[in-house]
Amino acid sequence: MIVRMHMSTGVATVDPGATPQEAAKLMRSRRVRRLVVTQAEEVVGILCQRDLTRAAERQGTNKHVDKVRQIMKSPVISVGQDDPIEKAARLMMRHHIGSLVVLSGGKLAGIITESDIFRSLVSLLAGHGNSVRITFDITEGDEPLDYLMTKTKEMDLKVRSFLTFEDGNRMMAVARVRGERMKEMVDELWESGLVVVNVIYLA
Length: 203
Known about the structure:
It is a single chain. The chain is α+β, with helices and mostly antiparallel strands and 203 residues long. It has two domains: 3-120, CBS-domain (Roll), CATH 3.10.580.10; 127-202, Alpha-Beta Plaits, CATH 3.30.70.260. The chain has six helices and ten strands; from the N terminus they run βαββαβαββαβαββαβ. The protein has helices at residues 20-30, 49-58, 85-95, 114-125, 144-154, 182-189; strands at 13-14, 34-39, 42-48, 78-80, 99-104, 107-113, 131-137, 158-167, 170-178, 196-202. A four-stranded antiparallel sheet has the order 8-9-7-10, covered by helices on one side. A hairpin with a 2-residue loop joins β5 and β6. α1 runs antiparallel to α2 (49-58). It is elongated, with a radius of gyration of 23 Å.
């Protein structure tokens, strides 16, 4: 999966010279919690609802805020629209942020949030309709995908997703299979010699 498959387009933008009140009004009207700050079509910052809350707390003090540029986050952490979605997730974790500006050719293309990434993970692992999710330990070099492709073809089942990942010193694989004969396939799977960690039926 790549970023543009899950990012939001039509991003709300604000000028760095706008007032916090103008930015707050724009957030309310667009029903968003963050604005990308642009100047002459160049991304120069990002402004979150929390930044506006903090600015309001400073009103009437010697740290009074008049313009968005005083409270926006800059430089902006960005990701390319054709980058893998796991790169976006790593950047958010590394910088402790909840969203990334998405660029294409140096221009604003969209925004992706931690909620978008969460939804992408749910769609990959859970999907829609009745299916079964099978987790394998492939540390010893087992190839469950070959087995699954053969067995699902025999039983007229569909492999809806398949991914591998590292879990400490172990290599794991997770497959999601759908079809009428799921339970029959799982019963045979336990006898296949593959290292099955768990099987979860999804509604």
